[in-house]
Specification:
Pfam families: HTH_Tnp_1 (PF01527). Helices cover 67% and strands 0% of the residues. With 79 residues, the protein is mainly α. The protein has one domain. The mean pLDDT is 78.
Length: 79
């Protein structure tokens, strides 16, 4: 058996609106109640990657929330 000499390439998940849109759509699917296993099989994306995107999305939301709190506090201190 002969192995391919081609290096393994990484898949890029850039659907119509770009990779960020594709990732956010997957996270929305999870939030709406679909399982990571179902989304994984339906879209051909590994479950681990789906969970990573979900965690990254939650981290962004948390960071934005903290930033908003800091901005509000700074504004209150200025007044």
């Amino acid at each position: 058996m002969q192995q391919s000499s081609k290096p393994k390439t990484r898949r890029k998940y850039d659907r119509t609106g770009g990779p960020a849109d594709f990732k956010s759509e997957i996270v929305k699917m999870l939030v709406s109640g679909q399982t990571a296993a179902y989304v994984s099989k339906a879209l051909g994306v590994s479950e681990n990657l789906i969970y990573r995107w979900k965690n990254q999305n939650q981290g962004v939301k948390k960071a934005n929330g903290e930033q908003n709190e800091l901005s509000l506090e700074n504004q209150q201190l200025k007044d």
